[in-house]
Amino acid sequence: MVSYRGREGYWAWVLHRLSGLGVLLFLALHILDTMLVGFGPEIYNHTIETLYRNPVARLGEVVLIAALVYHTANGLRLIAIDFWEGAVFRQRQLWYAAWAVFLVLFLPAAFVMLRPLFVRA
Amino acid sequence: MASPAPALRVRAVRPLGGDFERWSWYFFRISGLLLVFLALGHVWIMHLINSVDVIDYAFVAERWRSVGWRFYDWLLLSLALSHGMNGLRVIVDDYVHSRAWRVVCLSTTGLLFGALLLIGTVTIVTFPRTGP
To answer: Can you tell me the distance from the alpha carbon of A6 to that of A24, in angstroms, rounded to the nearest whole number?
Structure first.
């Protein structure tokens, strides 16, 4: 089997696609759970309680935010490459810059979201 | 730093995607830029300032007393869904080549898009206003 052993450009693309799909999948679920708001407080509150206020869901929340922030950072890198003359020759530096943006946005968010798992209320 | 690519002489050819693909290309970038603010703002408000522990029916009711927030949420919904479903369409184009399966996958994508947009819009628009 012929395998394309790409470098950062390839991985950027693969992760962009995977993160996009992940966020889209969540979005579909989220539209459906929010729809329950139209059926009254009991159903909606019960759903939020069951679906989101548990350790597995909190981890999933962090994974979701990671996917969203990566997709955003790499998306901005793509926009830079598409609209800024010469950016394509710096695409690897932009790749590192995208990861810097990712860490700056994601790490504090992950800390805030994971804290409830470790702190007793 | 990579050396500049050699100059290419290419005969101008109309791309097969035509005008739709060109529109789609711009749409990804424009919607993406708007979503940077809308989506990250949503995460900021829902997960960082608040959290899943405080979000309940009362929270939504309070938020949706404001038409401004309803519009924000609807804009986020429609842009994120269009951006994402258009992305799904591109993925289908990349991996699904048989004519029959393309019809199945692309119509499913379109139907999902329509259904989810309708559900979300109805939810936001018909939720009762609880205050003056």
So the answer is: 26
